[in-house]
Amino acid sequence: MNNQPKAFLTMVSLLICATAAYAAPETNSAAAYAHGLQPLVLIGLAVMLLLAKLGGELFERLQQPAVLGELIGGILLGNLALLGFTAAEPLKTNEVIAALAQLGVILLLFEVGLESNLAEMLEVGWSSFLVAIAGVVAPFLLGWGVSAYFLTDE
After folding, report:
1. Phi, psi of 87 (to 5 degrees)
2. What is the DSSP letter of 25?
3. From the CB of residue 44, how many other CB atoms can be counted at a distance below 10 Å?
4. Which of 56, 85, 105, 106 is the most buried (most CB within 10 A)?
5. pLDDT tens digit string along 21-71?
6. Spatial contact of 51 and 73, defined as CB atoms under 8 Å apart
7. How far apart are the first and last CA of the chain?
């Protein structure tokens, strides 16, 4: 089943909710956001979902995993400040975005686990084992070397 219409309807509904919340009259701005989402958060979520979906679709067409496209889309969106676009910077410290990001990491790891095949992992057993060991030992040694260089006793 194609999930594109469902994703599109979700993004449209998020945008409608964001504009309705933004257009609603406010009596006290602190009380208005006490129990609801800020419009910037909803618009930011819609943009994040849209960019992730587009990145995943693009990478699937290039015969690459969709997860890779979603991750690269997130990296690009997170670094827009380097290009001078700072409107999304408040989202980096938002509590709602932080909670959703933690849930997203759990879902990402679950999705990667679903795409894993035990038979394929056993075929590349020793080489993947050596890469995993090097991925732990090399950062440890590099961190120790940098700290030994900068944290000298005087």
Report:
1. -65, -25
2. -
3. 22
4. 56
5. 554 545 455 554 556 678 888 888 899 999 999 999 999 999 998 889 988
6. yes
7. 66
